[in-house]
Design goal:
Strand order of the largest sheet: 8-7-6-11-10-9
Number of helices: 15
Strand content: 15-25%
Structural class: alpha+beta
Helix content: 40-55%
Shape: rod-shaped
């Protein structure tokens, strides 16, 4: 310490005015009393000026402090702590001066300072003085000497004990809050498991999860997004914000945020703290955690937790969110399995229903000609008596009915057997090279008379030079004949039937179009079902087995081709595509 033994200075008359922060009038009645206190008290009093740059210098001190410091008040004035104290002691007193200025209030502390090469222990109080602008411009210090260093040690020890007790209490409170949070999470996980076991609706379950998580962790928002089948798009299907409600789904492209989704698709969580600047005045800081929802089969989606703070989610919260994500994966897989099972059950039910409908219609198809044959036979018996035949004209009509119904029954049986073979024991087609144009002209000509009698316009358009194709000629002829025959049955008088043929990229395209009739959109899928009649204008439907289009579809498939039907603007179009050289 720097010392300079001097003779003590006389009492400074204006010090009390600065000490009390008031300019006292020279004739003030309490001036003498204040001077007396300042000069005679055994407590050290010192005054420190706070400079505009934040530094400190001494202004004055009372006689008691002069004796301890070893210099006069005049010599102290304008000096800084380093000018009168050792470097270590100067640092200590500056720390306390800064603390008093920063807090803006009176502080008390104990410290050890060296005066005249002697360690002394002091209990000091600093009081800040403020000017009219509420700025601290001066510190008033009072110090009392502590005679025993042990007292200082005990006081410091007591402070340390108090600090440790406060720290332990704070840790205890944090631990209790953490335990309560874990308990709440366990309750939520248990609730989710119960709902999964009870097979609660998946939408209701996942919405409950985001709502409960948001309230449990005091989140700004909680979202649950699901990937599409190839994990290129993530859609926020469930979200909860305690401040506002929105049912609008948010869709994100995975490729737009590769640094985030690459991590999540690797089954690793993503956490970040971001600054959102809504305007130059308001800046929001958010912390977001994305945790993947996955199982052994792959990643299904992510849970997003968003809170308005710079504090990241701790390990306990992340671990608990992991448990929630695992339960979500179980619920989603169970829902997928349930949907798949329901779809299979529905398909089985539909198949069974179609089979029963098929059998019912088949029975009706068989019973109608049998009934007609039975009635015709009874009538025939009545016409033929022991005396001979009474009505040859009626006899001829009955014989014709018997022949027609037998042919109808025979056609139904043959079509049914053919369909059975194609479905159960399909044989490879016998491929030969055929001239498509010649065969089409021959088939169309065979229907000229029928179309003429029914007042229908039948035409054939060969759009390009068609090459020969390798196909089964029997199947090919039956496909074309059946489609034209069906068109003749359904086309009203005065309308047109057009058969077109084209060749494109090794594919033969056959198109049968007829006008004046239309199939409703909701019935297009039924066209190739057994016994389906899509128009009321079928003058020959009694001679139809109802299996013709089903057989056509199966024969086209056997030739590695496709057949589709379209209908619009009072027009029906069947389009058949056959490869020039099918490969089996």
């Amino acid at each position: 310490m720097k010392t300079n033994p001097v003779k003590l200075s006389p009492q400074i008359q204006k010090i009390p005015s600065f000490f009390f922060g008031t300019e006292l009038d020279e004739n003030h009645s309490s001036k003498e009393f204040l001077l007396s206190v300042y000069n005679s008290v055994q407590t050290s009093i010192f005054i420190v000026d706070v400079l505009e740059d934040g530094d400190f210098c001494y202004f004055a001190m009372n006689p008691t402090h002069e004796r301890w410091l070893g210099i006069s008040s005049e010599q102290l004035q304008g000096k800084k702590p380093e000018d009168i104290l050792s470097a270590a002691d100067a640092i200590k007193v500056r720390q306390n001066y800064n603390k008093c200025v920063q807090l803006g209030t009176t502080i008390s502390y104990q410290q050890c300072l060296q005066f005249q090469d002697i360690n002394t222990y002091w209990s000091t109080t600093l009081t800040p003085l403020k000017n009219s602008q509420s700025q601290i411009y001066r510190l008033i210090g009072t110090s009392t000497k502590i005679t025993s260093p042990k007292l200082l040690e005990n006081t410091q020890l007591q402070r340390e004990i108090k600090y440790l007790e406060e720290k332990i209490e704070l840790q205890k409170q944090q631990y209790q809050l953490q335990l309560q949070q874990i308990q709440n999470f366990q309750n939520l996980v248990r609730k989710i498991r119960e709902q999964i076991y009870e097979q609660v609706n998946i939408d209701q379950l996942l919405q409950t999860i985001v709502s409960e998580l948001s309230l449990l962790l005091n989140l700004e928002e909680c979202q649950l997004e699901l990937y599409n089948h190839n994990q290129t798009i993530a859609t926020v299907s469930y979200q909860y914000n305690p401040h506002f409600y929105s049912n609008q789904k948010i869709t994100r492209k995975v490729s737009d945020l590769p640094e985030i989704y690459q991590l999540l698709l690797k089954k690793q969580p993503f956490q970040s703290v971001e600054i959102l600047s809504e305007n130059p005045i308001k800046i929001n800081i958010i912390c977001q955690l994305g945790y993947p929802i996955f199982d052994t089969q792959g990643v299904l989606g992510n849970i997003w937790l968003i809170k308005s703070t710079s504090e990241k989610f701790n390990d306990v919260e992340i671990s608990l969110v992991q448990d929630i994500a695992n339960e979500c994966a179980i619920a989603l897989r169970q829902s997928q399995l349930q949907k798949k099972t329901n779809a299979q059950l529905q398909e089985i039910e539909n198949t069974e229903r179609r089979e029963y409908e098929f059998l019912r219609t088949l029975v009706q198809k068989f019973s109608t000609p049998v009934t007609n044959i039975h009635l015709a036979t009874q009538t025939l018996e009545n016409l033929i008596t022991t005396s001979g035949i009474r009505d040859f004209k009626s006899l001829t009509q009955l014989v014709q009915i018997l022949q027609n119904e037998c042919e109808r029954e025979n056609k139904l049986i043959n079509d049914l057997l053919t369909l059975t073979y194609l479905k159960i024991e399909p044989e490879l087609p016998i491929l030969i090279s055929i001239n498509v144009e010649n065969i089409l002209q021959s088939i169309v000509e065979s229907f000229r008379d029928i179309a003429y009698l029914q007042q229908q316009k039948l035409s054939l358009n060969i759009l390009t030079d068609i090459q020969k194709i390798n196909t089964d000629i029997t199947d090919f002829q039956q496909i074309v004949s059946t489609l034209i025959n069906h068109a003749c049955q359904c086309t009203p008088p005065g309308e047109s039937i057009i058969i077109s043929a084209n060749y494109y990229q090794q594919i033969l395209i056959l198109i049968v179009t007829y006008s004046g009739v239309e199939i409703p959109d909701n019935e297009l899928a039924k066209v190739f079902q057994p016994f389906y009649h899509f128009t009321k204008n079928e003058p020959w439907k009694n001679s139809s087995s109802g299996l013709e289009l089903v057989l056509v579809q199966e024969m086209v498939r056997r030739l590695n081709g496709t057949i589709v039907v379209h209908s619009t603007n009072q027009e029906i179009t069947f389009t058949v595509k056959l490869p020039i050289t099918p490969v089996f």
